[in-house]
Design goal:
Blueprint: H1 2-9, H2 17-34, H3 40-66, E1 70-74, E2 78-82, E3 90-91, E4 96-97, E5 99-101, E6 107-108, E7 112-115, E8 121-123, E9 126-127, E10 132-138, E11 141-147, E12 154-157
Antiparallel strand pairs: 1-2, 1-7, 2-5, 3-4, 6-10, 7-8, 8-9, 10-11, 11-12
Amino acid sequence: MDNTRRMHRTAQTGFTLIELVMVIVIIGILAAMAAPRMSLTDSSVHAQAAQIARDIRHAQMLAMTQGRTLTFQSLGGSYRCTDSTSTVITDPATQQPFTFTLNNGVTLTVASVNFDSLGRPVSGGALRSTAVDFTVSGGAQSAALSVSPVTGFVAVMP
């Protein structure tokens, strides 16, 4: 008789079907409210601006490593790194041409910056006295990149 009573007293644990459905409904409502606020292009602008900044720095490092002047050149929807003869260089890290096409309708202002064998931004063989600015834009978002004169430091401003 004690064993029978003990079996009836054990409490069942877990969630009911109604509780699980309510949680799923609440998550769905929250997701539906958040989705219009985030568009793929808007979040992509800042991610691609950060990638461009890293690639500018990479081009600067390659110029120092290879001991020659290299150019980081924006073409609007893409960018590339070229040598003094405007030939796209092969990126030693990937063994692929150093070119990149921007995604999701993101664009980059057309501009270029040359780095000498010491990694300094130059123009016509002389050190740059002004920054080189790029603007990354897409959708309602934009980000600015600035390559500092003398040092070549790349700053990204949202």
